[in-house]
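User: Sequence recovery, please. Input:
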């Protein structure tokens, strides 16, 4: 009962921690809305859908995740690698099948959350997380480059002016986030002094009505499920990976903890709702989330405002939003990319172990080359595992001694014996020794898997075939259980 009371108290604090924090959350969420717009529209084109589909989804996801998510101040929307997975389905079968896949992906994510599969994040090292953040910063900046090509000098002047406002205004006041002032000022200038620059209205068709509830127009058959399920599973996995990584980054930025399992189920509920209201699946958006935190957003209110304000500006204020210069959004995203990049990691390349630097750089290179954050993280995790296995293998040793009084060869094993070190373990034993007895001391060792106990069983069997008497000593409880089950010769 006490735990429930504490959880409810914490949940209330995440929503309202005082008037000052509420004001910061509201303003940060408003800025986050404008940061959402260009990326959601861009990824809508990647997925092969109308921008309003992505914008509707971001509105629904923002509201649901604010209530049901596990990480306060985290911005989620219809963008990221999910769009890359969705593109193939849309191209082959159309939008309605995508909506069905979105609902099923949400159901998968709810199951993943209930099964506590978020624990897999423990296998993502700090080097991988740093590479993930750096790669995202590079991708955020590179996404702005097309908006700066084949344009007039007016665009560059507006971007420079926007950056000046963003970085210099906080020296005077921080009452209102400088990116929000940047949007207002540059929009006013563009309206007062017409010039040849791109606006939000040029990016694609914006919503002109509210989203409506409707079931996907697909046949309820096993054939449909066979088509949709593989895409839904891929969308669920990719979306959760990006959301978990984003949540971990916010944990690090704010020095707080969050419930990753709840974030899984919350994202699942949000995606199911998005699919039922005609939207594509989404996930955590690290660029917008980092920006939200930088602007002062710390609670669930900032997430809610980002979603609600998106609908407000997209429908009733559509004519005004259409006039916002793209240059203002580019300036904001450049600032976000600069603040997202971990500049300390460049210095750490010369201070930290080389393998950590290799893992970080590999994550960056693969992510930037493929524009797929999930592939970069996967490569980083695999490299971390390989390097860890090599490191642990080198820590395993077998010292050999001989007791002439009892004519006993003594093998003292230290370290971890598992599939990667089992062959080295086997090679350290002399199975055709002239000694009559052998004692294998495992007091300072641990056997981790069936490969390890199988190697021990082989060594004992070979020694006994050469007429030696073998004694095993020092097995800890866990190792002894494995040996009893899988190495009968060694125990006999």
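Assistant: Recovered sequence (492 residues):
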């Amino acid at each position: 009962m006490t735990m429930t009371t504490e959880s409810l108290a914490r949940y209330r604090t995440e929503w309202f921690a005082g008037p000052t924090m509420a004001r910061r959350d509201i303003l940060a969420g408003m800025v986050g809305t404008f940061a959402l717009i260009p990326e959601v529209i861009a990824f809508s084109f990647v997925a092969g859908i109308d921008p309003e589909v992505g914008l509707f989804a971001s509105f629904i996801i923002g509201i649901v995740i604010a209530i049901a998510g596990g990480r306060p101040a985290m911005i989620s929307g219809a963008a990221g690698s999910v769009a890359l997975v969705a593109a193939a389905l849309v191209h082959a079968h159309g939008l309605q099948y995508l909506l069905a896949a979105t609902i099923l992906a949400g159901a998968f994510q709810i199951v993943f959350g209930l099964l506590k599969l978020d624990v897999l994040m423990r296998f993502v090292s700090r080097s991988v997380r740093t590479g993930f953040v750096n790669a995202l910063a590079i991708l955020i900046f590179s996404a702005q480059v097309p908006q700066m090509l084949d344009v007039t000098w007016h665009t560059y002047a507006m971007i420079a002016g926007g950056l000046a406002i963003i970085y210099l205004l906080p020296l005077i006041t921080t009452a209102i986030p400088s990116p929000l002032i940047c949007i207002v000022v540059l929009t006013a200038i563009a309206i007062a002094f017409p010039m040849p620059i791109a606006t939000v209205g040029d990016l694609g068709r914006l919503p002109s009505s509210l989203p409506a509830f409707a079931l996907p127009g697909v046949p309820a058959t096993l054939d449909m499920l066979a088509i949709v399920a593989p895409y839904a599973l891929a969308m669920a996995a990719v979306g959760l990976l990006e959301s978990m990584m984003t949540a971990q980054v916010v944990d690090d930025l704010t020095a707080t903890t969050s419930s990753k399992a709840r974030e899984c189920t919350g994202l699942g509920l949000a995606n199911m709702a998005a699919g039922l209201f005609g939207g594509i699946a989404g996930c955590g958006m690290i660029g917008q989330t980092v920006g939200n935190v930088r602007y002062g957003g710390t609670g669930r209110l900032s997430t809610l405002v980002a979603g609600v304000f998106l609908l407000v500006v997209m429908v009733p204020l559509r004519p005004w939003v259409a006039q916002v210069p793209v240059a203002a959004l580019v300036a904001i995203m450049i600032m976000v990319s600069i603040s997202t990049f971990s500049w300390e990691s460049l210095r750490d390349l010369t201070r930290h172990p080389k393998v950590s630097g290799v893992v970080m750089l590999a994550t960056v290179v693969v992510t930037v080359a493929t524009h797929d954050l999930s592939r970069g993280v996967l490569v980083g995790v695999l490299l971390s595992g390989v390097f860890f296995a090599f490191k642990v293998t080198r820590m395993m040793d077998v010292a050999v001694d001989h007791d002439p009084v009892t004519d006993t060869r003594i093998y003292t094993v230290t370290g971890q014996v598992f599939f990667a070190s089992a062959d080295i373990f086997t090679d350290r034993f002399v199975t055709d020794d002239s000694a009559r007895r052998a004692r294998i001391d495992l007091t300072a060792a641990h056997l981790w898997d069936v490969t390890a106990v199988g190697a021990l069983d082989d060594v004992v069997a070979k020694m006994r075939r050469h007429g030696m008497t073998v004694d095993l000593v020092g097995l800890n409880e866990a190792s002894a259980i494995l040996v009893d089950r899988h190495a009968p010769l060694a125990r006999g």
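The first helix runs from residue 2 to 15.
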